[in-house]
Write a structure and sequence with these properties.
Pathway: Amino-acid biosynthesis; L-methionine biosynthesis via salvage pathway; L-methionine from S-methyl-5-thio-alpha-D-ribose 1-phosphate: step 1/6. The chain is 41% helix and 19% strand. The protein has helices at residues 38-46, 53-70, 74-85, 92-105, 110-150, 174-182, 199-210, 223-228, 254-264, 284-287, 296-299, 349-355; strands spanning 2-3, 6-7, 11-14, 17-21, 32-35, 154-158, 187-192, 215-218, 234-237, 241-243, 248-251, 268-271, 277-278, 300-304, 310-314, 327-330, 337-340, 343-345.
Length: 362
Amino acid sequence: MKVGQGHYRSIWVEDGAVRIIDQTRLPHEFVVVTLGTLEEAATAIRDMWVRGAPLIGATAAYGVAIAMREDASDAGLARAHEVLVKTRPTAVNLRWALEEMARFLMPLAPSARADAAMSRAAGIADEDVAINAAIGTHGLGIIREIAERKGGVVNILTHCNAGWLATVDWGTATAPIYKAHLAGIAVHVWVDETRPRNQGAHLTAWEMASHGISHKLIVDNAGGHLMQHGEVDMVIVGTDRTTAQGDVCNKIGTYLKALAARDNGVPFYVALPSPTIDWRVRDGVREIPIEERSGDEVSFVQGKLADGTVGRLRISPEATPAANPAFDVTPARLVTGLITERGVAPATADGLAAMFPDREGQ
């Protein structure tokens, strides 16, 4: 996608080296980082230089490939899995990518694993791009229908960043928005700030501005008010893990948006790449592990200071502790539909099974 006059993926290989964009530096600085070791790949995932379930999975795959350059033995492959699987507990793509890399590499001789691992990681990245482009096409149909019925601008509310920065390219929730914009459909995006890490304010807003898409930044608690006054035509969010029953685990605050949408008759869609479906989980609220991150993310904010430097400021009393659950679960009953690469599925066990009969029970 666009960055200035250029086009980037969020992770790529250049001169044999794996490159990423350090998303913790956005929107004020655009910094490219090289991942040269397994530990650097793990740090990039754990410390959220990369984030978003699909990109976490792709980065984990490249992390295994980097590890195979260091030690391609069975022990080296096991260690790569052990180091990377601990970095983020909620996004299922991480585990999926690691299991896929192990499945692909284990039958190979160690001497063949380094090149094969890099090739398979690149394949996972390319597959993610194709999946998200297809999600965009299916979501475009929904936006087009609203535009034709309404006869004006389609107002879309997002939460967190489910853009190209959260995937390898296109994004999940933003893919339909990008495709609508390219098709000449007038869209306006309400961008939730997404406390505490402000991925909406830092990343989604930066993406929208880079692509010339009409948008406004709002505080997290403004969404319900906008829905009450008819200023939201649809909600599109992403997901880090979705159960076989259609429950959706996404950035903290998503559940509240779904409740407000249901109360106001606003369609609530989830852009769902199939690798985020965890067929082994039925009840999202009870079974999905919710990552508890450092309270410092709540107590401090990062931004550009008056002198132009980027700094970090405490916003709470020093004696006040903070809790920081990073995700919540939206029950399937609140989801209008799941926009997948194969089409729009009902958020039910039968709906997902019908859309992915080849994968149910995996």
